[in-house]
Amino acid sequence: xxxxxxxxxRIAACLFLAPNLAGFFLFTLFPVIGSFVLAFTDWNIFxxxxxxxxxxxxxxxxxxxxWKYFWNTLVLMSGIPVSIACSLALALLMKDKxxxxxxxxxxxxxxxxxxxxxxxxxxxxxxxxxxGLMNQFLGALWEAGAWFVGLFGFDPGPFPAPLWLSSERWAxxxxxxxxxxxxxxxxxxxxxLAGLQQIPKELIEAAGIDGAGHWTTFRHIxxxxxxxxxxxxxxxxxxxxxxxxxxxxxIMTAGxxxxxxxxxxxxxxxxxFEWFEMGYASAVAWFLFFMVFIATxxxxxxxxxxxxxxx
Amino acid sequence: xxxKLHLLLRYLMLILIGSSMxxxxxxxxxxxxxxxxxxxxxxxxxxxxxxxxxxxxxxTHQIPFADYYWNSVVVSSSITFGQVLTSxxxxxxxxxxxxxxxxxxxxxxxxxxxxxxAVLMIPNFILLSHLRLIDTYxxxxxxxxxxxxxxxxxxxxxxxxxxELEDAARIxxxxxxxxxxxxxxxxxxxxxxxxxxxxxxxxWQSFFWPLIITYSEELxxxxxxxxxxNRLYGTRYTLLMAGSTMMLVPIVVVFLFGQRYxxxxxxxxxxxx
Lengths: 311, 273
Known about the structure:
By secondary structure, chain A is mainly alpha-helical. Chain A has 15 helices and 2 strands. In chain A, strand 1 and strand 2 form a beta hairpin. The longest helix of chain A has 37 residues. Chain A is globular, with a radius of gyration of 25 Å. The two termini of chain A are 44 Å apart. The model of chain B has no long low-confidence stretch (mean pLDDT 91). In chain B, helix 4 packs across helix 8, helix 9 crosses helix 10 and helix 13 packs antiparallel against helix 14. Helix content of chain B is 75%, strand content 0%.
């Protein structure tokens, strides 16, 4: 009887797992192995694949473009600390239950949930050098400033409108700025709010009684208490950043001007689906995977466990 | 007095930041109802001189917008339904049933969450072309119907169901499916809602996969169709903004109604790290 029950339970488990497990094997596990094999073959879809060993990796590391795109990916990630600081500042502003606070939270969250093709088209329009919101806004600010310094006899001249997405110099800063706008009020802020709720009120009050100011309290209590949250957010942002950039680059710049905004993930797409160099593209994808893996190991080794975020 | 000043300052900052978050959206809607002529006027003017609703009409004539929309609705709802069903079933097995190697298998599942999409894209494309599913609804839907994140999320909810309830149901003659259907699911509705919202928002915005898996006009989803329009008619900003606005409406509605679940999902999602 006992054995029978156990048997039935195992059969049930198999049946419950079957759909998900089938999908998992077919669309995750099998492709991971396939991609790994492809990275060592030369294949353009039309002729049979040919094993070529490490040749792709050798080519990759010798190609200046690869390093340029890797560098682009890293530069575009330089907005991460600013974005995290903004999320923390927002969480601090919103941590108390003030009337109307829910409305602000919704508003701050809107860019993150809307992130996608529609928003990137919108931002391409915002960065239009002649008629876009950004330059119109900055132009108005410039004029106001020019009028003010004009009172003292200075003439700063007309507004030197940046060309944003079509300039090699401004394309990356434009994408970084947009990234900060997109993510500042998003999940990171929610995680910081959760982290702030876990700091015992007595601790903050005690610091106040001892005469500590806002900054001192933040520096010596809030910031250290939030360290695990910050660590988690930082690692997650790095993982996201390494893989990121495909959509915005595809929609807004097509990788240009002059490859200034091509990221590794866009490079994989371009090599794989525009040039049909499936083997080489897979090798680049595995380089990405390797970087992500290192970041993940870092999180496992040094990050605090799950219970920190339970709230 | 000092406290009041502090509060005022705080609200001022909240409003200032809020405006900078809202301004691009307002600008989008404003552009979407401007005339072409007014858009290309120098100077900063947010309120359109003449409201031209006709742009919304015109964009649906320039491109098969209604088809794109319909495709997105079909694909997103199917993916959402599929993800919830397959994740819930697997999560039930992982949380409530005993079988050898269960926890090891679950960990392995979780580990695959870190595989970058770029790694999976190429082999999946090849796989689907062998299955002759390129440029079909099935090709758009199938690979996204399974979610390790969803399995993880629902497992967390199923784990909290008291054992006694399950035992009582078994005495009443419920089998495993009965327990799943009549106890686990109804008691985990917030979890189901959270997963459904994430799945819907994710698939509505999904771009990379639909881009490479479809080529015929009749199967394009909204992001792919809008992106093609963006490439062809890059300067028709009034129409582009009308299209973008229409694309974002369902997102904003779903988010406004499901905000609570969305936020709790983020906090649970952090657990996976």
